[in-house]
Automatic annotation (TrEMBL), chain A:
Keywords recorded for this protein, A-Z: Heme, Iron, Metal-binding, Signal
Signal peptide: 1-19
Occurrences of domain Cytochrome c (ranges): 26-135, 147-229
GO molecular function annotation: electron transfer activity; heme binding; metal ion binding
Gene3D superfamilies assigned to the protein according to its UniProt record, in alphabetical order: Cytochrome c-like domain
Name this protein carries in UniProt: Mono/diheme cytochrome c family protein
Automatic annotation (TrEMBL), chain B:
Cofactor(s) named in the record: heme c
Listed PROSITE patterns: CYTC
One of the record's GO molecular function terms: electron transfer activity
Pfam family, one: Cytochrome_CBB3
InterPro entries reported for this sequence: Cyt_c-like_dom (IPR009056), Cyt_c-like_dom_sf (IPR036909), Cyt_C_IC (IPR008168)
SUPFAM superfamilies for the chain: Cytochrome c
Name listed for the protein in its UniProt record: Cytochrome c oxidase cbb3-type subunit 3
Alphabetical keyword list: Electron transport, Heme, Iron, Metal-binding, Respiratory chain, Signal, Transport
Signal peptide range: 1-19
Lineage: Bacteria, Pseudomonadati, Pseudomonadota, Alphaproteobacteria, Sphingomonadales
Keyword Iron: yes
Length: 233, 129
């Protein structure tokens, strides 16, 4: 592990780091797997200094609020069999190619995520669920009874333009943001509504703008986003 | 590296006018232009294109296509004040499509003003008149 870390660091090649299989971890070291295997690419505590350039140099998305964001079952499954969430990698621009009729993403160059075994995945998921946003996500903010998912779909796909950056089905939608077609399994509703309301609370420089959304908009779009990926698995 | 290679291809295939924007700061040693170009790459190129031509990765299926910022004739008709308003408050504020979002939560007033100057630089609107 140590050797591979040094190798990865000295080569400075992200691809190489991805190619290295994380080794099985010893149960005694519970609590340290995240720090030892994941901190090289993911912020596990709120970064002290946030800049635009951090978004250009970080190697993975932030996990410091993972406990407020993810469903644990999804984490356990995904860590064993990671799929692509951000079609253009952690920063789409680095894999974008100019073209006709529009720019494209060089998907072959998007790094694959390292996978872990079932036991490690459960342990890591437990540790991730302890990482909280410190009050950015309000329990119960999403009110399922008042959310009209059909109207939410219209807002998402047309009126509010979420589809510009997010895919609501594989192959449908923009490529600069994380896909949301499995959001119902991956994400917690109260996180979805909090993020949509003010993405800059999570990162002041993230390239999702704060859109003007009314409270009913927030509720119905969250209702729609949370319905994605629920039926077909 | 790959991107640079493609830029070089572009240089051959297209006119120098487009190639000068790839990398977007080529031909300028003005640090405010360079800073705005970097912000443009981060926030605007996703829709307006890495070559500032309105052909970003996010334009699949958009009902209104983003403005081509490299189009001298088209951009010349856009007053600087309207650019600033559109960038700050979104397309809706200037009777354009709301698919153009408001950036005032991400960019400071000064950064938005510099961005307007950058757009005038990109479209070569100052030299066209």
């Amino acid at each position: 592990m140590k050797g591979s870390l040094i190798l990865a660091a000295s080569a400075g090649v992200v691809l190489l780091a991805f190619a290295i299989r994380p080794t099985a971890v010893d149960a005694q070291a519970a609590g340290s797997e995240l720090a030892s295997q994941c901190a090289s690419c993911h912020a596990l505590t709120k970064p002290a200094e946030v800049t635009v350039d951090r978004l250009w140099t970080r190697k993975g998305p932030d996990l410091w609020y993972a406990g407020d964001k993810f469903n644990k079952e999804w984490l356990v499954a995904w860590l064993q069999k990671p799929t692509v969430i951000r079609p253009g990698g952690v920063l789409w621009f680095k894999h974008a190619k100019p073209g006709e009729p529009r720019d494209t993403i060089d998907t072959a160059a998007v790094e694959k995520h390292p996978a872990v075994d079932a036991e490690t995945a459960t342990k890591l998921a437990d540790q991730l669920m302890l990482l909280k946003s410190g009050g950015l996500v309000t329990e119960g903010a999403f009110k399922p009874e008042s959310a009209n998912a059909a109207m939410g779909k219209l807002a998402f796909s047309k009126l509010r333009g979420c589809i510009a950056c997010h895919q609501s089905a594989a192959g449908t939608g923009g490529l600069s943001g994380p896909e949301l077609y499995d959001a119902g399994q991956r994400l917690r509703a109260d996180y979805v509504i909090a993020y949509m309301k003010d993405p800059q609370q999570f990162d002041p420089h993230i390239w999702m703008p704060t859109l003007t959304l009314s409270e009913p908009d927030l509720q119905r779009i969250t209702g729609y986003v949370m319905s994605l990926g629920k039926e077909d698995k | 590296m790959i991107r640079f290679g493609i830029a070089m291809l572009g240089l051959v295939a297209m006119t120098g006018a487009i190639a000068v924007h790839q990398p977007a700061t080529a031909g300028s040693d003005n640090p405010r232009i360079a800073a705005s170009a970097h912000l443009y790459d981060t926030y605007c190129a996703q829709c307006h294109g890495v070559q500032r031509n309105g052909k970003g990765v996010n334009t699949v299926g958009l009902s209104v296509q983003p403005r081509d910022h490299s189009d001298t004739a088209g951009m010349s008709s856009l007053p600087r004040d309207q650019m600033i308003k559109a960038i700050s408050e979104g397309g809706g504020a200037v009777n354009k499509s709301a698919l153009m979002p408001s950036w005032s939560a991400v960019l400071s007033k000064e950064q938005i003003e510099d961005m307007a100057d950058y757009l005038i630089y990109v479209c070569k609107c100052d030299t066209a008149q």
